[in-house]
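To assess whether ligand presence alters the predicted conformation, the chain was also submitted together with norvaline. Input:
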Amino acid sequence: MKHLLKLLDLSTEEITRILDLADQLKYERKHGIPHEHLKGKSIGLIFQKSSTRTRVSFETGIYQLGGQPLFLSSADLQIGRGEPIQDTARVLSRYLDGIMIRTYGQDEVENLAQYGSIPIINGLTDFCHPCQVLADLMTIREKFGHLEGLKMAYIGDGNNMANSLIVGGLKTGMDVAIASPVTHQPDAMVLEFAKTYGDHFQLTTSPVEAVKQADIVVTDTWASMGQEDEKEARAKIFAGYQVNDELLANAKEGVMVQHCLPAYRGQEITEKVFEDHADEIFEEAENRLHAQKAVMVLLMKETN
Ligand code: CP
Ligand code: NVA
C-alpha cells in the first residue's frame, strides 16, 4: 500500500491490517503506551473544504505519533490562486513525508499521488471518503466482533459515503444494501464493482426493503459540501429517506446506527434516533483518530 486514494485500490487483507493496527493503537492510546512511530516526520494537511473531525483527528493523531502536522488551507496556498496540483505535489514531496488532502475532484488526489513521491491520503473527495469508512468498519467490528456476514444498509444520497461504504462493506464480507432515489444513485464505477458480488449487494429505491434484516443502518447528509445552494430542493428529493423509528422497526432488533457527521436532525435522521444511538455514533467519530493513525503508520513508518 503506497497511498490511500480510494478503498477500491485496497485488498481485503490491507483493510484488515489497517483495522487490526487501529485496534492496537487505540489500546495503546487508552493505556498511555507511547507509540511514536512517526517521530521526525512532517505531514501536510491540505483542506479545500471545511472540516471538524478530519482536521482535528489528523492533527492530534500525527502529534500522538510523534510527528509534525502542518495545516494547509487552500485559501492560503498557491493552489487557491491556480498553481497546478502537479507542481504543488512535486514541491511538497521535497519538504514533507506525507500529505492528507480534502478536496472536490478525485482526479486531484490521484494527480497528487502520480506527480508527488510521498504517500497521499484522501481525506474526502466528491467521489469517496475512505478514512471515514475505515473508522466505520472499525466501529462495527468492535460491536459485533466480526464483519463477515453482517448486513449494512445505507439510506439516502448515493454520495461519497455511499460509494466508500459499498466498497469497504463488500470487501470485508458484509452484505450491503443501498436505498437512494434513481436520480441520486452511487457512482457507476462503484456499482460495476458491486455487481461482481452478486446477491451480497442490493440497490433499491425503498428504504424499507434496504433495512430488512439489517444489522447496521447508515445515513449521511442530503446536501454534501459544495451543494449548499441546493439544500431546499434536495430536502424534497430525499423526503422519504429519513432514518426514523418507523424505518428502523424493519431492521434487526438492536440495530446499530452510524452517521459520519455532521448530522442534520429532522432531515436524514430524527433527533430521537440520533440520540438513542449517540454512543455508537460518537465512538465512530473517535475511531477516525485511531484508524487514520493506523493508515499513516502503515504508509509512512520506515520499517513497513
Ligand atoms: N465526518 C467527517 O469527515 O467530518 P468533518 O467534515 O468534520 O471532517
Ligand atoms: N457527504 C458529506 C460527508 C461529510 C463528512 C460531504 O461530502 O459533505
